[in-house]
Write a structure and sequence with these properties.
single chain; about 90 residues; mainly alpha; 3 helices; about 70% helix
Length: about 90
Amino acid sequence: MESIVALQNRVTPWSDGLEPSDAELDAIEFELPLILAEVELLDAEIAVLDRAPAELDERRIRRARRKVLAARRTLINQAAAASMPGGAA
């Protein structure tokens, strides 16, 4: 009987391409504020799935939505500024 480790090379050969490239890591880092804002919104929405949202919950969700919109706006503006000749947007 062979262990799963012995079969791993036949099933899933190891490749150096499994790690994210530097460009992919830079893209993730660039989008990280938006990702964190979306996680915060998701947390606020999950908190009220099984109950009626109280006023404080509604405020938390509205605040999280505004944070997501602000992060998206900032991300789009930074991308536009980077693509403009001379860096001016």
